Amino acid sequence: MNYALVFRPEVRDELDEAYSWYESQQQGLGDEFLDCVDEMLNRIGQMPESYAVVYRDVRRAVVRRFPYAVYYRIVSSRVIVTAIFHSRRDPKSWQART
Q: Do you know which InterPro entries this protein is assigned to (predicted)?
């Protein structure tokens, strides 16, 4: 069963910021970043229970090749993505979104 992915509004800003930063480092790297995030989101949509709970009912899936993780909650038949977050940032900012 594929779960419906629902994104908090802040997630778009986080992705845009990361994409812009990677593109400024090397042309095309931003697209590679988005491809890796998309691959992880597809995996989460297919098997959301596969990833560990890291805070209350929030799970974390680490993005391949980049120091980012997807934080999400499973609610009924939906996956609510609360953050796509750089691993070195303060986790209190995404924890406040739960």
A: RelE/ParE_toxin, RelE/ParE_toxin_dom_sf
